[in-house]
TrEMBL record:
Lineage: Bacteria, Pseudomonadati, Pseudomonadota, Alphaproteobacteria, Hyphomicrobiales
NCBIfam families recorded: 2A0305
Localization (cell): Cell membrane
Name this polypeptide is given: Ethanolamine permease
InterPro entries: AA/rel_permease1 (IPR002293), APC_superfamily (IPR050367), EtNH_permease (IPR004757)
Record's bilayer topology term: Multi-pass membrane protein
Gene source species: Devosia salina
Keywords: Cell membrane, Membrane, Transmembrane, Transmembrane helix
Signal peptide: none
Transmembrane as UniProt keyword: yes
Amino acid sequence: MRESGQGRGVVYAGRDRAYFDRRGLMRHANAWHLWALGVGAVISGHFSGWNGGLLQGGWGGMLVATLIIGLMYLGLTFAIAEMSPALPHTGGAYSFARTAMGPWGGFLTGLTENVEYVLAPAVIAFFIGTYMTGIFETPEAWQPAWWVGCYVLFVGLNIWGVALSFRVTLLVTLLALACLVVFWISALPHIDFMRFALDVGPGGTRLPEGNGPFLPNGVMGIFTAMPFAVWLFLAIEQLPLAAEESMDPKRDMPRGILLGFLTLSVSALAVLTLNPSVAGVGSFALSGSGEPLLDGFRAIYGDGLAKVLALVAVLGLVASFHTVVFAQGRQIFSLSRAGYFPTFLSLTHDRRRTPHLAMVFGAIVGLVVLTAIWLFAGEENRGSLIGFTLLNMAVFGAMLSYIMQSISFILLRRKLPDIERPFRNPLGVPGAVATIMIASVTLWFQVTGDPTYRAGIIGVALWFAVCVGYFALIGRHHLILSPEEEFALEHGSGGKR
């Protein structure tokens, strides 16, 4: 059976029940599991990555950037909290856009999110490797071994079973948050805000005595710091990817994502205020660090406990790596099950009912990109180039995804006003518009910012070109009536079957 896509330039290929039986997921998650999935995915950004914005805008610029980005994520999470229980499919962003904008809109939105979820684990793996190299004093050249070991372990845990995956997620997320709380409490007696947090001067110079201006690089510093502020919230939006593994997505999905955003907001402001303020640290030194939280611990407790503290700090990175690998697998799985990606990637494990091939494929792509940058980067700039270039590539994909999801929200409000919405976004269309505007500004300053980071965006463009070419030539002629496609054809954009 083959069916046209009503002028959308796509063709549907029929599949029997056996096709979907081999692509089934298992329901297990409750609201607390979803909260842990959202918080755990982001929490590594509170350990490493965000600090690059301190040199761009100084502490004040980074604070304002964080508040603006927080507003963007508030609008986004409220929109997702409305859409996800109304369209409770594993496709997440792709599912929303498919219903609102048709097959091409769904594919392009899914592709932007694919970039984010494949590259974000690679960024985290790099930071884990940096920590572990320092802890065990292994040669710098062995860093790729830490990356491979990280992928093998946590992809394996995710493949083992959804119940184990969610238990590990909840455990490591709670431990990571406990680590942050210990740091906050430890830091309070040791902070000298004016002397250390404000030690960045105009042009990114260091002020030995601190007491620098609130915005050392003016208003422009706020905008250039925004891509780094994103790392304090990046991936909270992954919760809808667990919709088909949630016991009650219509009730638990809004609770999980909104409670997760609240938790991350408190943590982000605490980390941003306390970490640079610790005596002996400072915003300037922290801005180029691959392990800012560990630098804070060292300043408080001395080098004698450094390795023990580093192991504790790795918990935050592990929490995010484990949870984003989960999202990566579900995201590739959903696009593959519907035929946008090769369909063999959506096969689930016969006994475990986990999308093992999707997770392995995503891990391989992430490792290839990470290793390629490692090989071509000079040794002197290798750390900052890999960490922050990959970070910006992931952020670039995320911003495009947020714009597309917000547009989807607006269109769904207009096109499907009467579908059941268990949760209704109190910010409505204005909140979605604000998200689009802030994400667009962030994108602009990524494109026009540091030339080193622009190289990463070129890499994303090549990624898009390859995947769009595949879909245009092959994928769109072999789409499958997955749950996302069925819903879209019945209610949304794409016409009747």
